[in-house]
Structure formats: structure tokens, C-alpha cells
Write a structure and sequence with these properties.
Layout lengths: L24 E4 L13 E4 L5 H16 L2 E6 L10 E4 L2 E7 L6 E6 L3 E7 L6 H11 L8 H7 L24
Parallel strand pairs: 2-7, 3-5
Antiparallel strand pairs: 1-2, 3-6, 4-5, 6-7
């Protein structure tokens, strides 16, 4: 195959699933699979839930490898003071609030190119965050983000509602 026959893929991240994981890191699988078969395209471990402080670093890292990011979808209940847009590197990035859960962020590049990232809770240990991020970027991963966080100890299990207590005796009945 001649060089001119090589498909021109958008900027993709190198395969770095085994780097040391630290808060603020974004890890994507895009460099090693062009099929995007898994549920998640990558993972992000923010330092805090302050979106104004955290999102510019994520967008800068993604823009360097993927091109301009135009929209981000987050669950407003999981972030402090979620604005409707941010100016990052002289570009407007629109922020949408979706009930996607606090364990997922949706990134839009261009008009219709979407990426789904696992969000590791800021309080996760480095070991748990590394395990969650590594699992999220596996090409054959079919586990949803919340399950990955539970399985890796990055997030406590979601509370299960307590069963309703049995109804007591009817008033005026034999007791």
C-alpha cells in the first residue's frame, strides 16, 4: 500500500494505558482501535468537582489530539456551578446538562462525532483509578461506567432501597 493510499485518520492518542495514573488525567483508547466497539471511548480523573477548573485542562488535552471540541454533556447534579458555556483557548465550548450520571461525560467534536468518557471520582485512590481507567479503554469492554467504578472500588456501590416494612394489623382487627 503506497503512502498516498493510507487512510487519513483524525489525530488519535497514542496507546498509553499503562502510564502512571494521577488526578487530572484523561486516558483514551482512540489510538489503538478505530472500530470504537466498546461502550466507552476513554476515561477522565478530575482533581475536583469544580467544572470551571477541571474542564479547560480536559478540553485542551482532547483538542490537541482530536481537534476542536464544541460541546460537553455532563450531569449538573454531579458538578459545582455548571455554566452553559466556557471560553477555552479563545473557543466557545457549550456545556449541556444531561442526566447521564456523575460517572460519564459526553464530548462532541464537530457536528456529530461523540465520545463517551468514564469519570473517575476525584476521591478515588490511584490504584482504583488506574484499574477503572484501564478497564474503560479496553476495546472489548461492555460494562457501563457505573459498574466499572463499583467493580474497581473507585466508587461505592449505589444504595439499594430498603424493602417496605410489612403492613401492621388493621386498626380494630385482632392483634
Amino acid at each position: 500500500m503506497a503512502d498516498s493510499d493510507t487512510p487519513d485518520f483524525p489525530k488519535l492518542l497514542p496507546e498509553e494505558a499503562y502510564r502512571a495514573v494521577q488526578p487530572g488525567m484523561a486516558l483514551l483508547r482512540l489510538g489503538t482501535t478505530r472500530s470504537r466497539e466498546g461502550i466507552l471511548d476513554g476515561a477522565w480523573w478530575p482533581h475536583s468537582r469544580n467544572i470551571g477548573a477541571e474542564l479547560p485542562r480536559l478540553i485542551a488535552a482532547l483538542t490537541e489530539h482530536l481537534g476542536p471540541i464544541v460541546r460537553v454533556g455532563l450531569d449538573a447534579s454531579a458538578w459545582e456551578e455548571l455554566p452553559t458555556r466556557l471560553i477555552i483557548d479563545d473557543r466557545v465550548v457549550h456545556i449541556d446538562s444531561f442526566p447521564v450520571g456523575d460517572d460519564t461525560v459526553l464530548i462532541t467534536r464537530g457536528n456529530q462525532d461523540h465520545f463517551s468518557l468514564l469519570v473517575v471520582p476525584p476521591q478515588a485512590t490511584p490504584e482504583a483509578a488506574h484499574a477503572a481507567m484501564t478497564r474503560a479503554v479496553q476495546a472489548d469492554n461492555v460494562a457501563p461506567a457505573g459498574q466499572i467504578l463499583i467493580d474497581t472500588g473507585s466508587s461505592p456501590p449505589r444504595p439499594v432501597p430498603a424493602p417496605e416494612p410489612p403492613a401492621g394489623p388493621e386498626p380494630g382487627g385482632a392483634g
